[in-house]
Amino acid sequence: MPEITETELKRRISRSELTGLYFLYGEEKYLVSYYTGRIAGKTGGRRYPDFNLQKFDGGAAGAERIAEAALALPFFSERKCVVVSDPDAGAMKAGEAKKWEEMLASLPETTVLVVSLPNLEADGKRDRNWKKFIDLMKRSGNAVRLGRRTAEQLRRLLCSGAEKRGCTLSRVNADRLVSCCGADLHTLLGELEKLCAFAAGGEITAQIIDRLTVKNLEARVFDLSKAVLSGSGDRAYTILNLLLDQGEEPVAILSVLSSAYLDLYRVRVSVQSGFDATEPAKHFDYARKEFRLRNAARDIGKYPSGMFRESLGALLAADLALKGARGDRRTVLEKLIARLLILAERGKTA
């Protein structure tokens, strides 16, 4: 049976046309949890929910217990729902896998079985057990892959979410919120709820976003890169020390900092070659992160291409030093920031 789309799943939920097996997986874990709850709410029955809605931790409950629940008849109701979260197919033994096959082959019409992965990743490309399990799910019922939202989808979701809460959020500030918090829906919607409560029916401005949102590592390291490029050594070291004192891994900090400089260099080369600043998105992974290229386009004019190349060389040297465990890791990053500050200052006067 082929996969069904999220749109088709929503249609079936709204019309209560839910039967058989539903396998929910994908990168967007918020949506996996959300639709699992929607299906369970529609099919678990309002009468005797203790009997007609049974939930299992797939990592703890064996296939025997799950099958016993799935094959049992509903209690004074037309149907029942059994939810199994995060069955670890990668560690599943042959006997357990066989039991799953037998259960799905004899699943009664009165049972809606929801197998969802709100935490685990189904790695069917590198793990044979996962591939077999995914194939079994697709053959036996309705598989729905819930992937990451695009930048435009996130923008519409945040703007409409603010409107439903009586506030206004511009498309530009929706992008700003994503750049601060990342693209995880759990985080974004939680931050939106907080911002709407603060705005109290008004506009969610850039100042409110900057003041109230909890920035993720990527956003904070991009602030570090801006401080370096602007020549603000005090601010750069303040941000670096805060990141390290909060327990962020030096390798992770360096990785994001390198990404910021790569954005600048790619945009610079693209523009010099006669292309648009967003051209790198066609060749590299900028899905839902196109704003990084637009931000980089605002900064590239101040510096020559040679500065970016030398900076990337300094970042590579720091990466080798960190991974080779040569010297104190904090010192490696502190020396790197000093080198990048010098290169930025020299680039301005070139």
List the helices and strands and how they pair.
Layout lengths: L5 H10 L4 E6 L3 H15 L5 H4 E5 L5 H9 L8 E6 L8 H12 L5 E6 L11 H13 L1 E4 L5 H14 L6 H11 L3 H15 L6 H7 L4 H13 L3 H13 L4 H23 L17 H8 L7 H19 L5 H21 L1
Helix pairs in contact: 4-5, 7-8, 7-9, 11-12, 11-13, 12-16, 13-14, 13-15, 15-16
Structural features, described:
The structure is a single chain. The model has no long low-confidence stretch (mean pLDDT 89). The protein is built from 16 helices and 5 strands. The protein folds into 3 domains: 6-145, P-loop containing nucleotide triphosphate hydrolases (Rossmann fold, 3-Layer(aba) Sandwich); 151-212, Orthogonal Bundle (Helicase, Ruva Protein, domain 3), CATH 1.10.8; 217-349, Up-down Bundle (Zinc Finger, Delta Prime, domain 3). Strands 2-3-4-1-5 form a 5-stranded parallel β-sheet, with helices on both faces. It is an alpha/beta fold and 350 residues long. The chain has helices at residues 6-15, 29-43, 49-52, 63-71, 94-105, 128-140, 151-164, 171-181, 185-199, 206-212, 217-229, 233-245, 250-272, 290-297, 305-323, 329-349; strands at 20-25, 53-57, 80-85, 111-116, 142-145.
